Structures are given as structure tokens and as C-alpha cells.
Amino acid sequence: MRLPDLVRRAYPERAGEADALPDVPVSTVVQDARRVVPGAVFVARRGARVDAHRFAADAVAAGAILIVGARPDGRSLPLGGVPYLSVPNDRAAVARLAAAYHGAPSTRTRVLGVTGTDGKTTTAALMWWLLDDEAAPAALSSSAMTRFGRTHAPGEGRFTTPEASEVQAFLARAVDHGMARVVLESSSHGLALGRLDEVQYARAVWTNLAPEHLDFHGTLEAYRDAKISLIRRAGAAVLNRDDPHYPDFAAAADTHVSFGEDPRADWRLLSVAQPPGRLELRIAAPNGRTLEATVPLVGRFNAWNALAALAVAHAEGVPLPDATARLATFPGVPGRMQVVQAEPFTVVVDFAHTAPALARALEAVAPQQGRRIVVIGAAGERDPAKRGPLGAAAVAGADVVVLTEEDARSEAVADILDAMVEGARGAGGRPGDDVRVVPDRREAIRTAVALARPGDVVLLAGKGHEATLERADEVLPWDEASEARRALHDAGWG
Questions:
Q1: Given 203, 258, 390, 412, which is the most exposed site by the fewest CB atoms within 10 A?
Q2: pTM above the 0.70 mark?
Q3: How far apart are the first and last CA of the chain?
Q4: DSSP secondary structure code for residue 395 in this structure
């Protein structure tokens, strides 16, 4: 694409200015000066702490052909003859230019957005699993995994929703790979910060709403409105009728179906059974049929996530028998209540790494009979005030606690564990008895497996899907689920 064409597509009202730009090819659109390559358009955003105009000269030196920003005096900057395009909103500019560069990819596939306080990642993964087939493959972008069909897509970001340029590039790759649908986890930050501007949504899913991220949004109302903005933008919606905020979301939707236990829900959850390692659901479908469905997840809350995904699959044309059959084969989300083994005792990997999250996870995995055994650590170079509460939450929710490392980084593992032991002791834990200290995480997992008896649940908490374990002098490749499988195999269970 040529530079004048890019600007005309992104800002059609400024065609005259576009005509005056150099007729040179564009190689990419970036907002990080470190990613500038020859032919790049660099958007110099002004953030709360850093004004990226300070890197404009570096971008020019690296080969940028246009600098874009919200400074009215931008043309007076020393840019060595490289033009400056002044825009009213630099965040919006990233999305507009990236979408234009990639040919508006969201208009060439069906984008299904998922938002909510809890359950976004699991619901998005379930939707992808139910929708993806050879005839109409589906892509997935979430905080835990990205996929093009059943193929892993490299380049996952740190955030639930990547920056606008990355979102548009992912959508473009999905189109190039022939993806009929894209499931896009859509966070409140991504919506409020314009990362999802220029994405055309065909359908949206809302899981629930609870106070969170108020340090960023300021109020619950602002947080709610950020999520409601997705519902307004989508052509249709799937909404949780059991949540008290349902009326607000329903009022914002052009058309929607609801799910939940509420008798008025279109997709009604009639019962949930929780045998080891799975959920068994009875569902009243909109056509009057009663369905039986099994999903290999733990935690009763995941019944709502599965029901939402089933409603989406049906709305997208997947026959119900096919959808329920696929639900039973769901491989799980890496590190999110991931069932590694169901019998004779259950082993679950989860990302819970704060005291409230650990308490919820332990409650979710409560066995019908047997004990709860938890392996948990606390990160170094992070909030030290959470270490004691983590130890206390572990004792409060589990029968046996194994305290271990979790990315100690430059801190001494012993110091971190001492703080966790104090929290555990304060909650009634007995070090050396129901509280074990095993500094090496691999050995801690083996200890938990060795302690487990039939009917127990072993929860490996904190690392989840993370791919490294950080120590003071090394960074180890890490896969918590694989470590669990290895420990089970060596103990004669697998």
C-alpha cells in the first residue's frame, strides 16, 4: 500500500492532505518506536507518563516515512523532512491506520467478542472449540491462548486485549488463514483505551459484572459502560440473565438471547452435577428440548461459561447434537481450572495467585469426598503484603498446604516462604504437619502427588499457563500441566 492511499482510507475527509504526501510504500503501522522499520508509519502517542514524540527522531532514523500525533505544532518538529500528520486523537489514529493498512479485516470475517469480569477466557475458548471445524475454521485471541483453527498462533501479548495495531494484524492473519470466525476476548481496558476501535463485531457475549479494575475506570458505572459499549457495537448479543446488571446490558443490545438459571432465560440451566473432573449439565434449550451435556471442567461457575458458548454455537448455526458432542471433548484452557487428571484423584492447574482468587479456586474444586491439597507460592519483586494472606487462604481452603517458589526473581525464596508460613500459622496451620514447605516447585508438585489419595483433589495454583519460572540466577522453561503429568507418571499414576 502507498502512503497517500493509507491516509485516504483512514481519514477520507483529509484526502487533500493525503495527496500531498510522498508516494512511497508503507511497510507497517506501529506505536512503539522500537518496532519501526523502513517504510513504517509511527504514531507518537502522548501517554500519562511519556510523550512518544521524544522518540520521533529515533523513528525517523530507523526509516519511518510518516509521524502521526496529536500535537498541533507537530510539523515544526525536527523530523529531517519526514511529514507529520496531526490528528485529534492519537489512540484512535492507531486503530484507524492499522485497520486501513490491513484492509479492514473485521469486515471480511465474523468477529465474536467476549467480555465480562469473570469467565471471559474460558468462555472464549469454549466458543472457539464449538465453532471450529474444517469447513468453517475459527480463530481465537485470548489472554491464555491464540489459535488459527487447531494451530497455535504465535505472538500472544501480555494483555487480555493487545494494542490496536496487534489486534488488526491478528484479524488480518485470521483472514489470510481462511478463518470463517474469530473469537476475540474483549476486555474493559481494550474497549476504553480504543484498542478495539475499528473492529466490526457480528456478535457479543457478556458473562457477568463485579467490581474490578476500578483503579483504572474510577467507578463501577464507568467499568460497566466500557463493557456495554461492546454490546452496543455488535449486531446481536448473548447475555447472562442471572446477573443483576442484565437489564442494563439487555437495553443496549439490538437483539439478544439470554442464559442462566432464571426461569425467563432463553437457555436455562436446570441442574449441574459435579463428578470428579467434569460437569454434567441439564439444559432447557429455546426449542423446548431438554439437553444433557458434559464438559471436562471443574467449578460450578463454569456451567454458565459452557451454556453461553452453547448458545453462541447454536446461534452461529452449529447443530445442537454436534455442539454438545464437541463440548464433551473440550481440552480445557491452559492454566485455567485445567484438569490434568480426574481419577483416582483429581489434579487441577489454575492461575490463582492472590488470596481471594485462591479462596475461590479452592472452593470450586471441593471434592464430594476426600481432601483438598494445594501447592502455592508467591512472586518475588511483587507486593509482599499478599504473601501472608496467601498462606492464610491456603490453610482456610485446603486440608494440606505445600508452600513453594513462584518466580522468586532476585528475592530469597526462604524469605518469601517465611512470610507465607506466618500467614498460614496465623490461620491455624501447623508447619510440618498440614503445612509443608518445599522450596523447589518441581519437588513440591511431586510431594503433593505423593500425598494424594483416591477421592482427593490436588490444586496447583499460581503459575497457570505461564511458560517460565524465574529464579535469581536463571529463567527456566516451565509448563505446570506437563510437570504434573511427569510427577503422576513417575508416581505410577499415568
A1: 412
A2: yes
A3: 54
A4: H
